[in-house]
Amino acid sequence: PIYLDGFATQPLAPEARTAMLSAWDRPGNAGSPNAAGEQAAALVATGRAAVASLIGASPGEITFTSGATEANNLALAGVLRAVHRACHSRSRVIVSAVEHKSVLETADTLRSEGIEVIRCPVDKTGRLNVAAFAELADERLLLASIMLVNNETGAIQPIAEAAALAHRVGGLFHTDAAQAIGKIPVNVVELDVDYLSISSHKCYGPMGIGALYRASSAPAPHPLLHGGRQERGLRPGTEPVALIAGFGAAAAVAAAELARADHREDVLLESFLECLSHRQLRHHRVTDGHPTVPGGIALSIPGVDGDALCVALAKTVAISTGSACTSGQLTTSHVLAAMGFSAKSAKQVVRVYFNRYLDEVHVVLAADEFVAAAERCRLATGELRQ
Ligand code: PLP
């Protein structure tokens, strides 16, 4: 099948695969005082430097985790436990209504620890309501967590603006950048965030590895796990050397690809949308003109059930509805609901992403299959109604 499910996960970069195979071929624990251990530690250091460089951080500000889910948990639960104990006058956490569940559910678990959790609304294009955020961000603010790019719509959020509002009142700021890494340039200094979560597999690296950036000036979170001294005690456990090497290689390629600035992924997406129009398939971008990541979009196809379309395309084109973790459940996407979609209209939405390994031939083939499958779904729905 033609792979357009890049919001769920990206294909593995060949460079990441090569780096992992070579690391797996060499035994060595990065904590061991022998030559093999030193080699492993060197691979970890190289990977850390590449990941840091991709986001404009220094290597000491990177803590490897199992992925963005864990990084989000560490940023919210870990930071709040560390800071709230020391400063009881601040107990407010602001998250946006369209965050990934790993942020929303972690924040919700903190209510029992005396934290006030507020969900900031977004507008109908999925953009953070900055005026509402500014009103909520007062001297009670402890931490705000707003994602850089949404995983269901690709919408890019005004993070530098929100971070400045949080800092103005002395609050801390975290952003979940899992969907931004490798898709748009991300610079922690320009964004001026205190914490930032990333995931390797959304950036053409292996699954099972990610990282939390913590600015050297920001408070250290309480570790979620206890044990060894790896990752300066913040994330104990033997470092997965090969995964880190793969993540580092993917990050290095991503940096080079972002420097291309030829917007190839976007050219492919636009060409796909043009093909849909030529073939007379009605479709709307759910973000309605709001900026999204190059190559990625959520589309509403009137009269076509998104889940049925994914199934109808299963053998030829890989796409998905909503986030992969919630598809299969019969609940309306919380992201689309927050944007004002009814349960019925949210069911007509699918997301596509054109990755760097695709070309115009894939675009035309994918569009042909997409239009034919959408027509089959529409006919089937019509027949069911009769
Ligand atoms: N945050 C966002 C925005 C995501 O899209 C995802 C992946 O679905 C995650 C966090 C979780 O990332 P990981 O799979 O690395 O735990």
Automatic annotation (TrEMBL):
The keyword Methyltransferase does not apply. Its cofactor is pyridoxal 5'-phosphate. Keywords: Iron, Iron-sulfur, Metal-binding, Nitrogen fixation, Pyridoxal phosphate, Transferase. Its EC number is 2.8.1.7. One of its GO terms (molecular function) is cysteine desulfurase activity. Belongs to the class-V pyridoxal-phosphate-dependent aminotransferase family. NifS/IscS subfamily. This is Cysteine desulfurase. It comes from Hansschlegelia zhihuaiae. The lineage of its organism: Bacteria, Pseudomonadati, Pseudomonadota, Alphaproteobacteria, Hyphomicrobiales.
